[in-house]
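A brief tutorial aside. Many learners find it easier to grasp structure tokens once they have seen a single protein encoded end to end. The record that follows does exactly this for POMP protein. Read the sequence first, then the structure, and try to relate runs of similar tokens to stretches of the chain.
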Amino acid sequence: NSRGASLLKDSISFTEVSASGLFEGHDLLRRGFTSVKNELLPSHPLELTEKNFQLNQDKTNFATLRNIQGIHAPLKLQMEFRAVKQVQRLPFLHSSNMAMDILRGNDESIGFEDILNDPSQSEIMGEPHMMMEHKLGLL
């Protein structure tokens, strides 16, 4: 028993050996450039509400659906959302997420994001090999 305990003490997992804490360097490939703006609090009280608008709307819709049709309806819809989120294009290709828009009922409406798209979904394509390696956890 004491020999087994000493073997466990002597073995150190890779995660404990990796750099962490105060002396950890910033990994540009995985985390990108540092920005002070990302670390600041929202500049306006409505900014946080606007960022979470879709999540709040989904919660309200699920609660209403549960009250009207019972627990099975929101569970089925959440299962369909999860299935649609798993089907994606390669990480370096833009995806319109049309199936998600159909499930949410946004397929027949034209909004701001349809004309002036979200800047995070720009048409600039990254290096395909590096993006796939990062998605697969090889990097």
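Self-check: The first helix runs from residue 2 to 10. If you spotted this yourself, you are ready for the next section.
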